[in-house]
Amino acid sequence: MTQGRPKGPVLFCYDGSDGSRQAMRAAGELIEPSGEVVVLTVWEPIAVRLALGGAFTAGSLPSEGDVDEQEQSFARAAAEDGARRAAERGYQASAMTKESTEGIANAILTVADEISARLVVCGQRGRGPLRTALLGSVSHALAAHTRRPVLIAPEKGA
């Protein structure tokens, strides 16, 4: 029983960090550059970020809507930057953003299913064992919960 090569796009998880740029470079050495890719940047509303951090606010913060618009704008700019970088490597790249209210890894997995991604590519930040234990790790959550192949590229020099 032989199946053809999966036809969906490669999903690059991209937040503009060194880790996500390194993952794109590493994938470039393994994935045919003429294929279709989607560059995804996930953003979280400020209320979600504060709740996850255990913060309560009652002070003079900018309006929640303004902060969320800034976060969404940053995510759009990061995704477009990633798509431009992918296109420079020869990929047919499109940028995409996704709002996350239930965790970044969950948002990535949802998008991977929606677009029938044949591979999910992400970087590894190497935050250290204590911070990973306290804050979690997107790459670890992806590897543990995905039904799709995942390429986790270590940071350069790791």
Task: Give a quick rundown of the structure.
With 158 residues, the chain is of the alpha/beta class. Helices cover 44% and strands 18% of the residues.
Provide key terms for this protein.
Rossmann fold; single chain; five-stranded parallel sheet; 6 helices; alpha/beta; about 160 residues
Describe the structure.
This protein has 158 residues and is an alpha/beta fold. The chain has one domain (10-153): HUPs (Rossmann fold, 3-Layer(aba) Sandwich). It has six helices and five strands. A five-stranded parallel sheet has the order 3-2-1-4-5, sandwiched between helices. The radius of gyration is 16 Å and the shape is globular. The mean pLDDT is 82.
Estimate the helix proportion, in percent.
40-55%
In the CATH scheme, what's the topology name? Rossmann fold
- The N- to C-terminal Cα distance equals 39 Å
Structural shape: globular
Question: Main sheet?
Answer: 5 strands, parallel
CATH superfamily: HUPs
Number of helices: 6
How does CATH name the architecture? 3-Layer(aba) Sandwich
Radius of gyration: 16 Å
Assembly of the depicted chains? single chain
Number of domains: 1
